[in-house]
Design a protein that fits this description.
Blueprint lengths: L1 H22 L2 E7 L18 H8 L2 E3 L2 E2 L5 H10 L3 H4 L15 H7 L3 E6 L12 E4 L10 E4 L2 E4 L4 H16 L6 E6 L37 H5 L28 H5 L4 H21 L3 H36 L6 E7 L18 H4 L3 E4 L8 E3 L3 E2 L3 H9 L13 H5 L8 E6 L11 E6 L2 E6 L5 E6 L17 H18 L3 H16 L1
Parallel strand pairs: 1-8, 1-9, 2-11, 3-12, 4-5, 4-8
Antiparallel strand pairs: 2-10, 5-6, 6-7, 9-10, 13-14, 14-15, 15-16
Helix pairs in contact: 5-12, 6-10
Length: about 525
């Protein structure tokens, strides 16, 4: 009897352990770089077609108010990993270092039995921690024939970085992971980051189409502040003939552009395909001899077509990964999230790039599928931030969320089991003076209003009514009709800064560190 009882207890313990392991979902966290929500067709902007990314929303949830805390590459990724604002995790800009020794959600999943992998772009200097396998691009990486640091060893792989990243991802899924363990996979693409060098098969995609410019493409910033007027990110003004527009010769000086140097990284076969695709287009541009607004429209079209072409390969890769999950009976118990490290300007206000707290760079696409829990076709309108990924993944995995994480799990929001959620978000930006010259600022956004403070070399406030002015063309901070709103937003801003632990003293500290680092 005693032996039988011991056996039953042992059997129940083993069964409980197996069920617990089986119940933990796999997590595939897909992140691209600078993928504007406007360029995900599920959001309905009709610029391009992303059927595989859209599938995640169709079979799960689409987030209409997904935002970042700091719209620039490395800091955004640090927030994603740590679940803490930039001024807490220390990675406030692309210059100052990131401390990999601090906790991140991958470490917590790894220590709880998950097998973990990071493949693609992370843009955080140092050896990744929390991952059993990593193959990452050094820094920004290259579009063609990229180097990867694979578990500490640098290798160069011939081809285009987007399908290569997908191939490495599928190889890990098929051949390297322990199939008896739940897994966390960070599958992170470089595209569509500047300078938008597409895969060869898409070199002529959209050549037969002319895109309309956004209505405020030729914005004069009359209704905005000094920061908007003094930026250096205009498509028609700051983008470069070679690096951005792929011209081999400067039409103004006749001199060779830096794009000639960039083509040197390509193999002869790759270079021949590029020249075959772009030489006729560039010849037609020179022959047209455009000027004024016509030239501005041409620049927009060259930019937007190159940008969208790179996204097509990203969407292909998403399709391949989803297909693998389907074919290996992993779909039901795998969380799939698609997002970007921030938003991006696709000609709005005449801009490319990000950094500002204005909507196009603050907002980011978020699409999520988990058939076990998430009903298909759900639309989420709560204010979600990249701060929330870490606690959400831990929540789904059944792991205690550390008290010092500043984000919140949105699991109950997606499952519609709780209506309680934040009604405001907080934002910071630090990298100035620097490329694009977007001034330092911080601010608060609610469902309807946005208050921003630009500081350091100026001291200006901007307030926008997003319901009446969704394109943010008119700063109403000094409008008497908004006096009460302004006072309330200032109170909210103070509340948010106190809640998250931000201060003017921290701003000054990070400014001094930044200026010192730039002198080195």
């Amino acid at each position: 009897m005693i032996k039988k009882s011991i056996f039953k207890i042992f059997f129940l313990v083993v069964l409980f352990s197996c069920n617990k392991k089986h119940s933990q979902p796999n997590i595939v966290f897909i992140m691209s770089d600078d993928h504007a929500f406007q360029a995900v067709s599920a959001y309905g902007h009709n610029l391009n077609n992303t059927p595989n990314i859209d599938r995640i929303a169709k079979e799960g949830a689409i987030f209409n108010k997904g935002f970042v805390t700091n719209s620039i590459c490395a800091p955004s990724r640090a927030v994603m990993l740590t679940g803490k604002h930039s001024f807490i995790n220390g990675k406030v800009d692309n210059v100052q270092p990131f401390n990999w020794d601090q906790p991140n959600f991958a470490k917590l999943l790894q220590s709880s039995g998950y097998q973990t992998a990071l493949i693609g772009k992370i843009h955080l200097h140092g050896a990744p921690q929390g991952f059993d396998y990593s193959a990452v691009l050094p820094g920004q990486g290259h579009y063609y024939n990229p180097d990867f640091i694979e578990n500490g060893d640098t290798i160069r792989i011939e081809g285009h970085v987007t399908p290569i990243t997908t191939k490495l991802t599928l190889d890990w899924l098929k051949n390297q992971r322990n199939k008896d363990k739940p897994f966390l996979l960070l599958y992170h693409q470089k595209a569509p980051h500047r300078n938008w060098m597409t895969e060869e098969k898409y070199l002529t995609l959209f050549d037969d189409k002319t895109f309309n410019t956004p209505t405020n493409y030729f914005d004069n910033y009359e209704g905005m502040g000094t920061a908007a007027k003094e930026q250096e990110m205009q498509v028609d003004g700051h983008a470069m003939w070679g690096h951005d527009f792929k011209l081999l010769f400067d039409p103004e000086t006749g001199e060779k552009t830096n794009f000639n140097k960039q083509l040197e990284r390509l193999t002869n076969e790759q270079r021949e395909k590029w020249l075959a695709a772009y030489t006729p287009k560039n010849d037609a541009f020179r022959k047209a001899n455009l000027s004024g607004k016509e030239l501005g429209v041409w620049k927009f079209n060259r930019y937007i077509k190159d940008y969208l072409r790179t996204i097509q390969s990203v969407d292909d890769g998403v399709g391949e990964v989803l297909k693998y999950l389907d074919e290996n009976n992993l779909t039901e118990n795998t969380i799939v999230v698609y997002t970007s490290d921030q938003g991006f300007y696709l000609g709005e206000h005449g801009w490319f790039d990000k950094r500002f707290m204005y909507e196009e760079s603050l907002r980011t696409p978020i699409l999520m599928r988990y058939p076990k829990e998430i009903k298909p076709g759900i639309k989420i309108n709560n204010l979600i931030q990249n701060l929330d990924f870490a606690p959400t993944f831990l929540d789904y995995a059944g792991i205690d969320i550390p008290d010092d994480l500043q984000g919140d799990s949105f699991r109950k929001i997606v499952n519609n089991t709780s209506a309680k959620w934040r009604d405001a978000i907080y934002y910071t930006y630090y990298e100035y003076p620097s490329v694009h010259m977007v001034k330092r600022h911080y601010g608060v956004r609610t469902d309807r209003y946005k208050l921003m403070h630009f500081y350091y070399d100026i001291d200006e406030w901007e307030l926008y009514d997003l319901q009446k002015d969704p394109s943010e063309m008119k700063n109403v901070y000094d409008d008497p009709k908004y006096l009460e709103i302004r006072e309330n937003m200032h109170k909210r801003l103070i509340e948010m800064r106190n809640k998250y632990g931000d201060s003017d003293q921290l701003n000054q500290m990070y400014l001094e560190r930044y200026l010192t680092a730039r002198k080195r």
